[in-house]
Amino acid sequence: MAWVFLVIAGVFEITWAVGLKLSEGFTKLWPSVLTIAAMILSYVFLAQAVKSLPLGTAYAIWTGIGAVGVAVAGIVLFHEPASVLRLVSISLVVAGIIGLRLATPA
To answer: HSE of 21 in the Cβ direction (CA atoms, 13 Å)?
Structure first.
């Protein structure tokens, strides 16, 4: 269950990071409210995950999910550049996430 909590925490991290952009510096009420709610939920699920997962692994995977998700969201939602170097870099982060998962007992 800890791995499921960690993935959920990562999805909420992506949500709040995108929400930061949509809230325009917390000047728009509803995007700001949703951003803050996603922040809280992200931390709550991360806290549940680290009850049984190693802290370093859980935190690295959580930030990796967020980094990859936000980079992809930036490309898809905000038309940020998808250069070869950027895509290769995202792939390396994904490889690191997979490596950490494989190196950590279930």
So the answer is: 11
- What is the tens place of the pLDDT at every residue in 24-61? 999 999 999 999 999 999 999 999 999 999 999 999 99
How far is C-alpha 95 from the geometric centre of its chain's CA atoms? 15
CB 35 within 8 A of CB 16: yes
Q: What is the 3-state secondary structure (H, E, C) of 27-53?
A: CCHHHHHHHHHHHHHHHHHHHHHCCCC
Please return the burial class of 52, using the count of CB atoms within 10 Å of its CB with bins 0-12, 13-18 and 19+: exposed
Name the nearest CA neighbour of 16 among 29, 33, 35, 32. 35
Q: Where are the domains of the chain?
A: 2-103
Task: Say what the pTM is.
Answer: 0.92
CB-based contact 52:106 (threshold 8 Å): no
